[in-house]
Write a structure and sequence with these properties.
The structure is a homodimer.
Chain A lengths: L13 H19 L6 H7 L4 H7 L3 H20 L36 H11 L3 H16 L4 H27 L8 H16 L11 H4 L1 H9 L19
Chain A binds a DNA duplex through helix 3.
Keywords (chains A, B): DNA-binding, Repressor, Transcription, Transcription regulation
Pfam family, one (chains A, B): TetR_C_6
Organism (chains A, B): Streptomyces misionensis
Chain lengths: 244, 244
DNA sequence: TTGCTTATTGGTCGCACACTCAATAGCATC
DNA sequence: GATGCTATTGAGTGTGCGACCAATAAGCAA
């Protein structure tokens, strides 16, 4: 009954099909790496011929860049939602397709309507642990591949700017609310991100267990740069549920 | 006179040939990336058939891992020479072939016989600027590729340990000499390296100019962790010759 | 000089990739 | 129900890769 391949063509709306392709590519990129985003792979994933993918993306590199941009944007929105971005969502229907946020909705401590300090603590708490590993892997992947792929390089630069901007905005909010104290919100944001990058590069390697001081580097950098008392941002493990 | 290909076989000592292959692979890895280390590419570089390369390296992955290890070791020795490693060199002739250190011999400020503080300042001074970019690129490359290549992953872990150990040793020397003050030399070393990694991941992307505070992050981390006064380690650009 | 070991060649195979393009068939519209 | 647009297929091209192996010749030893 199921031995013959399905020959039935499913003809879809170009915009919807394109969105579907991008979403699939983003998922593959996040889970397996950008080099697995190939015409064949994505075509197979969607039960569609490779030629169709190249119909929507004349060059494969475009798809790869789009996949990265999509995945990174989704993760940024999940980890560091823009202030005031509640459940309503801006411009429903108009927004380009994005990979579905994996499970954990930012409802509660990380919600965009909480205070800057709480939001920052929540963000930093999410940047340690296995949950963040896939994102670290994606960034390393993209940063390396940027060496050879101009289009991807540009997308990486744009995402960098987005993450930097989002964090800077959070810091400005905190300064305005009197929770943070810094003369250079952008500089503080960059420093925190540099430390996060440095902490994240080891995901693909087996690294000896790190002391708490190292695991807390992003936290202590933020505390120092934002004029917060030590431990104001919590400990990496204390924000999470207790390990089984 | 030179139209016909050279058919003359040059038969070399296996050890020498192997060393030659590794050195070439390391150079290609450093200059163009680990994915350019292929049987064909290295064979062409040495005017030799690809089959010969696989004769010495049954799996291509082994060669890639070896190339990385070789390049990284050479760079470590150049940037952070082991204390007491002067011109004599340990066990001459026995050491495996390494890519030739590129020009700048560590004679002077960075020499292994200088004091720990001077050596550290020299090292940090070398980690900013275009000179270090190739090394940053290599590390990102290797860290990403480690995701798919177990042999390389292990080599990366070994190199990480080597860099960490070398820096820790330098710090211990400094503590013993009364120049540094820390209760946890290893922790300090790791923190400095994390910051360096974080600063280095952007080499393949166009990034907006960074403020001095960011460029000095490794310096200030070291000063903080080693109980040094601010600016004790100099400024990134002041250690170098003046730009033209 | 002769012989022998083995470093080196030349060729082949299978695989995965991006890219091209004429032919085909869904599906909305009339 | 017929028609036309176009999303989708199928088939084929060329490239580069690692791996494999029998044949060959370089250079050392007898």
């Amino acid at each position: 009954m199921s031995s013959s391949v399905q020959r039935k063509r499913i003809r879809k709306d170009p915009a919807a099909r394109r969105a579907e392709i991008v979403a699939t590519a983003a998922a593959v990129a996040l889970a397996e790496g950008l080099e697995c985003v190939t015409l064949r792979r994505i075509g197979e994933e969607l039960a569609v011929r490779p030629g169709l993918i190249s119909h929507y993306f004349p060059s494969a590199e475009e798809l790869v860049a789009e996949a990265f941009g999509n995945a990174a944007t989704a993760e940024l929105d999940r980890l560091l939602p823009a202030a005031g971005a509640g459940a309503e969502g801006p411009e429903p229907g108009t927004a380009p397709a994005r990979v579905a946020p994996s499970g954990t909705a930012p409802h509660g401590a990380g919600a965009a309507d909480a205070g800057p300090l709480v939001r920052l603590r929540w963000f930093l708490g999410r940047t340690v642990g296995e949950e963040y590993d896939a994102i670290s892997r994606l960034w390393i992947n993209a940063r390396h591949l940027s060496r050879y792929r101009p289009l991807l390089r540009e997308r990486v630069a744009r995402q960098e700017a987005a993450w930097r901007g989002r964090l800077e905005e959070l810091i400005r909010d905190g300064v305005a609310a009197g929770e943070f104290r810094t003369a250079d919100p952008l500089g503080a944001a960059v420093q925190i991100l540099v430390v996060l990058d440095g902490l994240g590069v080891h995901v693909n390697t087996v690294t000896p267990a790190r002391p708490a001081a190292v695991l807390r580097m992003a936290h202590s950098t933020a505390e120092r740069e934002l004029g917060l008392p030590a431990d104001a941002l919590g400990h990496p493990e204390s924000t999470e549920q207790s390990p089984s």
